[in-house]
């Protein structure tokens, strides 16, 4: 009887004590501020903007429920939306491939440097931390038809007899914006690729050199396949960022009059710029602006899925 009583009175070690149960709540308490801020400043605005897209509202009066009329008007009666989407896709197509290729090539060159590697990284990364306002002023002065350094250089070389209106040509305006994006983000792509090359085990390169592999063959057969995941990441994030393009075209043409908003023939008008114009500048149609934002969200999802499958499809097959 005494043995049974001792066994019954012994604590069960497998079950947590009440004090330990209370301690398990601490991680949730620490995460609660972030969760609260995320729900208040991320989830609620997203849901509320979709709610606004189903209404007509100028920000002052009462909201009028109109259903999907904002989406129908946007997709059927607003040709400027398709023009802005076309401009965004064209600028993205002109910039993303060059950023990928130049960033990878620049990272490879810096990776193989024996001296001045840190200096080269710093110089190439400086444009990425430069403010967009400064970049807009720099390129607007560079391509000015009277005092721009581009026209002055081309005229002195004899390639042109007089200055060219770079910023007034629809296609050249898209090209200039693409050059701005490439110049600004090239350092970021270089840094990401350089980090990926540094993470590759050096034993693989040593084995390749023992087998007689040359530099170009090693880069094509070893470095490129091992950087595939980084390339997919950069392509997808570039697609998402490119479809949200706003700073570069707005700052390049920000000093012009309101009648030239969007550049020559609206060639520099992007979807986000149109969203800002329709929501806050040319009118206060918050419901229509919310419809533009959610339509762009669906376009971003489709482009991201397409770019991911296009970039990672070969890896999935292998």
UniProtKB/TrEMBL annotation:
UniProt entry keywords in alphabetical sequence: Cell membrane, Membrane, Transmembrane, Transmembrane helix, Transport
InterPro entries reported for this sequence: ABC_transporter_permease, MetI-like, MetI-like_sf
Membrane protein topology class: Multi-pass membrane protein
Cross-referenced Pfam families: BPD_transp_1 (PF00528)
Location relative to the cell: Cell membrane
Transmembrane listed as a keyword: yes
Regions crossing the membrane: 25-47, 85-111, 123-143, 226-246, 286-308
Entry superkingdom: Bacteria
ABC transmembrane type-1 domain residues: 85-307
Family: Belongs to the binding-protein-dependent transport system permease family.
Full protein name: Sugar ABC transporter permease
Organism annotation: Paenibacillus rhizolycopersici
């Amino acid at each position: 009887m005494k043995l049974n009583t001792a066994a019954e009175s012994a604590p069960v070690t497998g079950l947590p004590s009440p004090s330990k149960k209370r301690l398990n709540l601490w991680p949730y308490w620490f995460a609660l501020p972030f969760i609260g801020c995320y729900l208040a400043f991320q989830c609620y605005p997203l849901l509320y903007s979709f709610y606004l897209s189903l209404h007509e509202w100028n920000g002052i009066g009462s909201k009028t429920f109109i259903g999907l009329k904002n989406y129908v008007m946007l997709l059927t009666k607003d040709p400027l939306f398709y023009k802005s989407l076309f401009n965004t896709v064209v600028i993205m197509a002109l910039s993303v491939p060059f950023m990928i290729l130049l960033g990878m090539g620049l990272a490879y060159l810096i990776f193989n440097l024996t001296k001045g590697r840190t200096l080269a990284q710093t110089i190439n990364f400086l444009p990425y931390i430069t403010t967009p306002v400064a970049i807009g002023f720099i390129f607007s002065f560079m391509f000015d038809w009277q005092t721009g350094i581009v026209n002055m250089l081309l005229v002195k070389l004899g390639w042109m007899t007089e200055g060219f209106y770079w910023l007034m040509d629809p296609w050249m305006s898209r090209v200039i914006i693409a050059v701005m994006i490439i110049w600004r983000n090239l350092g970021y792509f270089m840094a990401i690729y350089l980090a990926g090359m540094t993470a590759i085990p050096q034993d693989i390169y040593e084995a390749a050199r023992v087998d007689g592999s040359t530099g170009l063959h090693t880069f094509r057969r070893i470095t490129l396949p091992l950087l595939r995941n980084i390339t997919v990441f950069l392509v997808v994030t570039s697609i998402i960022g490119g479809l949200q393009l706003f700073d570069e075209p707005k700052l390049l043409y920000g000093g012009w009059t309101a009648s030239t908003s969007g550049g020559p023939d609206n060639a520099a008008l992007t979807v986000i710029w149109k969203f800002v114009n329709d929501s806050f500048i040319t009118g206060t149609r918050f419901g229509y602006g919310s419809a533009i934002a959610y339509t762009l969200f669906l376009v971003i999802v489709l482009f991201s899925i397409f770019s991911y499958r296009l970039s990672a499809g070969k890896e999935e097959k292998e």
